[in-house]
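Troubleshooting log. The previous structure file for this entry was overwritten by mistake, so regenerating from the original sequence record. Sequence copied from the archived sheet and checked twice against the printout by T.R.
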Amino acid sequence: MKKQKDKHKCLQIKKSAPYSERKVDNLEDLALLIHAMDQDEGIRIRGDIKRFQGGGFIFVTKPDDRYCLNIVDRIYDPIKNIDTVGQNDEWIYFHNFEKVWDKLKNLIRNPLEAYAY
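Regenerated output below.
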């Protein structure tokens, strides 16, 4: 019987790439990404919601068999020159794509500003 090589000795540890995201350009692509979303994926969308500062950020995830919208304040940080997440937040859960999409369409800022990660 041949002695098996230890597979793990051959593995090289690579540093993971920095956090990456890609811009979502239109509502059709956004809908496709949400519909096909896996547990390790998410989307950040700039909102147009009056009760959230700066219109809010909307984070779309699917941590299990349901979709989650996490809506938070969008606060501009003049020192870093970026928008950051504020403390006001709301969590809404949906059991299917149609329901999350119906809700989301009414919360998105126009023109669309969204990033998939």
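Residues 50 and 84 are 17 Å apart (CA to CA). Archived copy saved in two places this time.
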